[in-house]
Amino acid sequence: MSKQHRTALLVIDIQDAFLEPTFHIWGPSRSNPDFEVNAASLINSYRHLVAKSESAIHKIIHVRHASKSSTSPLWPAASGFKFQVFATPKEEELVITKNVNSAFIGTNLEEVLKVHFGGAPGTLFIIGLSTDHCVSTSTRMAGNLGVCDAPDGEKGEVVLVGDATAAWAKGVGEEFLDAETLHKAHIQSLQNEFATIRGTEDVRRAWEKWVADS
């Protein structure tokens, strides 16, 4: 993949509702304590890549969840609907609002990506919350819809940055799954069939090399 290869970074649901003290709503504990650091590092690195690009070949897209329930912390009028500070979009960055787990249902995201990739195979990087819900669903649909592929069938690539997402523990009694197990299971289920799994440092170094080579 060269620095001239068109890419997009999809940042999913990094909103205040997922901060404490609302953890108990999602589960008693969360996986990946490095999520915030990794996600912030990637957003900042990708913004640098966008700024250094001579043409608009790299695009950052923020997705936020707007619950249809007025009691949800993700209800549009609730304080939790806001983006977390480190993931707040800049004025020129696209924001897409969804109402279900998939970022592709009820939105124009598929069209946006296909227009951005311009008929050539591209690479979509995905980070955000949460691993087993909106991240997993959106990653699967990105692969199934072929949003990174060229019209002639040449394949692009969906890349899920596995350590830049997180999940909450779920279940009861003997069926209870701790957060790390749940997180890893969903990451592994997406590997190869729906996405390539890469790590924050690997992805960030690639982006920084593109900038250095420009």
Automatic annotation (TrEMBL):
MF GO annotations: hydrolase activity
In terms of SUPFAM superfamilies, this protein maps to: Isochorismatase-like hydrolases (SSF52499)
Q: Which UniProt keywords are listed?
A: Hydrolase
- Record's Gene3D superfamilies? Isochorismatase-like
UniProt xrefs under InterPro entries: Isochorismatase-like_dom, Isochorismatase-like_hydrls, Isochorismatase-like_sf
Q: Which residues form the Isochorismatase-like domain?
A: 7-202
Q: In which family does this protein belong, per the annotation?
A: Belongs to the isochorismatase family.
Query: Per its record, how is this protein called by name?
Result: Putative isochorismatase family protein
Originating species:
Lachnellula subtilissima
For this protein's source organism, the top of the classification is: Eukaryota, Fungi, Dikarya, Ascomycota, Pezizomycotina
Query: Which gene is this protein's source?
Result: yrdC
